[in-house]
Amino acid sequence: MKIFGALMLVMFTLVSLSSCKDDDDPADNDFFAGTYKGSISFNEGSNNISTNDGSVFVTKIASGTKYNFAFSNGIPDLNGLEFQKQGDNSLISVGSTALVYVRIDNNDLKIAYNKDGKTWTANCTR
Asked: Which of 63, 82, 84, 114 lies 20 to 30 Å from 46 when distance is taken between CA atoms?
């Protein structure tokens, strides 16, 4: 019985580790969470934050079309951005009045988002 228990523990561990791959593509999954690291910035009038050593925690929520972007270094988060999948790995912004460029895949995150005089940028990898 001890051998069977140890075998089950090893199998569970292997399955758990293999399901947490870094090569998951956000466009292919209904739910996604991952951290991208690199250059990020935020500008709003005289409030300017910029670093080459920042991070963005990305979560794909709800019906698989809305994303949250949690920035490090005191940069305000971008929540509830909605995208529609087109083609294999392309997402386009829908229902937004902002100037939006977001490109996200399993390795790269690029953001240029401008709304109400506020600008967020990110050039990150994972």
From this structure: 82
Query: Around Cβ 14, how many Cβ atoms within 10 Å?
Result: 10
Q: What does the alpha-carbon distance between residue 103 and residue 108 come to, in Å, rounded to a whole number?
A: 8
| 3-state secondary structure (DSSP) of residue 118 | strand
The Cα 95–Cα 93 span in angstroms is: 7
- Dump pLDDT digits (tens) for 48-83: 999 999 999 999 876 667 889 999 999 999 998 887
Q: Which two tokens stand for residue 54?
A: 């920042």
Whole-prediction pTM value? 0.71
Q: CA-CA distance, 120 to 75, in Å (whole number)? A: 8
CA dist., res. 27 & res. 11, Å (int):
29
Tokens describing residue 22: 């870094």
